[in-house]
Design goal:
Strands 6-7-8-3-9-10 form a six-stranded mixed sheet, sandwiched between helices. It has a four-stranded antiparallel sheet with strand order 2-1-4-5, with helices on one face. The chain has seven helices and ten strands. By secondary structure, the protein is α/β, with parallel strands linked by helices. The mean pLDDT is 93.
Length: 227
């Protein structure tokens, strides 16, 4: 089953009356359990594609299907519910709430989903344990290293058990050793939970870990490689 499918996806941006064709008709199918990287240089359209799949932006033309459900035409609230219920996000800037502790950053999305207090506690603590942060739940982001902050972001994404996790340059701000640890962690979760991961990256290390590479340049898919 396809978790994600795009059909002739087009995205144009207008800056100072100049039209930039970020995506020019992209067709992609991602099946459940894939560990896939969208690869390309800066400005190739890889992050744009990831943001469109994550319903963080809307296409100029074309279709996006999440679990065979057409995204086009959904209202803002429905898109918000889709992101909340089905998709986890991991960004290179971590996007943690600085005034909240590690535990609070992980538990916050579960509160929005209406989980019971005891369940929120159990799920959040287990997620932090899974990413190796047991005992650090009361620390705020500024008290943690970059790698530890990225682990919080992974725990937050995993806590609600999404079918799809989108990781935009997740190793960009990490040294190679920490980056390897983060990728090993995500690969383990992919194997144990069968969670679908899609990366956007130009990092060779991420490319080495991915089982499928989708190469994009100038808004077009150039080729694919499977391992």
């Amino acid at each position: 089953m396809n978790v994600v499918e795009t059909k002739n996806l087009v995205k144009d941006y207008v800056t100072n009356s100049i039209v930039v064709n970020a995506l020019r008709g992209v067709n992609v199918e991602i099946k459940k359990g894939e560990f896939t990287a969208i690869v390309g240089p800066s400005g190739s359209g890889k992050s744009t594609l990831l943001h469109l799949i994550g319903c963080l932006d809307t296409p100029t033309d074309g279709d996006i299907l999440i679990n065979n459900k057409q995204v086009k035409g959904l209202k803002k609230n429905d898109l918000a519910f889709l992101r909340r219920d089905k998709i986890g996000f991991i960004f290179q800037a971590y996007n943690l709430i600085p005034v909240l502790t590690a535990y609070e950053n992980v538990s916050f999305p579960l509160t929005l989903l209406g989980y019971k207090t005891k369940d929120i506690r159990d799920i959040s603590m287990n997620a932090l344990k899974e990413v190796g942060l047991e005992g650090m739940e009361n620390r705020r982001p500024k008290e943690l290293s970059g790698g530890q902050q990225q682990r919080i972001a992974i725990a937050r994404a995993l806590a609600k058990k999404p079918e799809l996790i989108l990781a935009d340059e997740p190793t960009a701000n990490l040294d190679s050793t920490t980056g390897t640890e983060i990728l090993e962690l995500m690969l383990k979760l992919n194997k144990t939970e069968n969670t679908t991961f899609i990366f956007s990256t130009h990092d060779k290390m991420v490319m080495d870990y991915a089982r499928r590479l989708i190469f994009i340049r100038d808004g077009l898919i150039q080729k694919e490689e499977r391992k």
